[in-house]
Amino acid sequence: MTSNKTIVFVEIVGDSTPTMKKLNLENNLSNIRKELKKNINDMNILLFAIKVGQIFAKTEPDDENDTILNDIIFENSGSKFLYLMKNSNPSWKYLNEKCKLDFGRITSFDGIKEASSKAFKMRDCEFKPIDSKGYKKGRLEFKSEEDWMKKTNLFFGIDINVQNFIGLGLSIGKSKDENFKDEVNSTYVYTEIGKASLKFNKENLELTSHFSNDVKNAIKSKEHNKFREIIDKYGQFVPTEVILGGRVYFKGVKTLSENSTNKTKESSVNMNFGPPIARIGGNSSDSERKSDFYSFDHMKILGGSPPVDENFDEKVWNKSLEDYRTWDCIELKNPINIFKLLPDDIYKEAFKSIGKRILRTIVKDYEYRLDNPERYQIIELTDEESKIILNKDADCDIFATVVDDDENSKKVFFNCQILKNQNAKPSIIIHVIQKEPQKRICKLKIGIMIIGYDVDFNFINSNVSVELLVNNNYNFNDGLMANNLFLGIPVLEYFNHLNDSITIGHNFRELNNELIIEPFSYCSKKHCYHFSNLPQFSFYTIVIKNYSNIYESRILEYPKKDEIKFSDKCPKYISMYFSEADSYLPVFMNQKSEKVYLKHFCNKCEKCKQEPEYNIKLKTYSIL
């Protein structure tokens, strides 16, 4: 079998030592470049050249697909030569490879970390040089732990997406470093030289087969731990805008202002590098002036050439940044979750395979006027609170609970229902049950739980998961009944004068591995219960799994005992369970500050006349 390859001597202009390589003369230059990359590390900063007499003419990268190797070969004494020239203009391909710009990243206490494996390959980008505005000097301070984490991980702008990525790194870092508060209270001075910006989007990225296969296998497994492993391997996010250049900053700075007359003519700033305390000064002049000097105990450099000894010369460092091969990432912007960069169909399969999660918990303060003749009030969510709900992919539902801060008002009961119209965001209906209207204002705390698909993968590290059920009767095995918490709430599709005075309550009954939901209603106008002809509603039950850290269970003998006291005032979701076959009583719960009261609003029914005792199990889930 004959080979189509020919011996070619490859020489970089300015380097007197050529290398021999067998290449196909009919291949285009794009394929030749791929072949040469196997042996030449800096191939991304080299251009193909044609020798014309004693000079060399470079070829444009855009022409490489349409030019074959034989077109630029130089022949001398029967030998074939291929010439390469160093590109004096910045090459985004070189910088992408050097700085791993298309790799995923993970936030950490020690700074941003690059993933070990590549999920995507960058095909194109928008690459722009930065003018003199890229030179900055300033002080870097921190407003909070989160702000410290953001800036340590090279996020300096205002970006709501960044908050989603810093939580894990912050929690890990705090557990490892006892001096974390000192870090947050520290101050830096810095010099920054931005040389270029690089931007790209989803369309500029090519999905790697390894990442695609790992995600598809995780989807099939339906185990959220598999997605954790993917993040560990491929990163949390990809920054879609990067500022390249250099930054040097100094920690532990104290300003020592002094009036001085400086007669020296220093040409640059000099300072000790490393542990010894040093002094930073500006360029001097022969005139009398006020000088600011800084002492410091730590320095870090991103980009540029490092000092050759313990002295840092800013002028030399600035000069080194004229060579784009010394640039580094100095700021990250517009991060996108690594799963959101997947094709839409795979992305949706991924978050649905994990199941629904508790996406957000909210506690709202609300003043309720008891003399309101309507006997109810509707609580709307703000635009910020309902933002995730309006994301159709998340398929969200809300649960609510209410606490009255006045624990002495035992005769006033509040109850929550959800109003969910198809064409509007859900809202919360708060009913009040009282014998006679009172002229006072109750200060309520309304707990709201939003559940849905975790489309941002923000809760991938949480073991708590939920399952939504819309029915009135369920069969479970012993393990599922014993080890999970069930919470329920009635959901109305419409609300008008026909049902505005009706409060819907419910009890759970555990019997023979069966969870039975027993709804009832109470009319606040007629002061009576209804067990049939209830208003039209759906009953939503969520099963909360792996919740042991925020759960407790109490047994209460009602009516002998009608209250339970907790150790805090935080709103809680509480479910009542009757466990005996004939044990059933329509009971409302009322959270009053640190206590929970139970009440059956009737003195006429047969159950009241019998005056039995009921063993009621209360299971509570803390909202915070």
UniProtKB/TrEMBL annotation:
- Using the record's annotation, list all stretches that form the DUF7431 domain: 358-608
> Which domain of life, per UniProt?
Eukaryota
Domain spans labelled MACPF-like: 187-349
Q: What is this protein called?
A: Uncharacterized protein
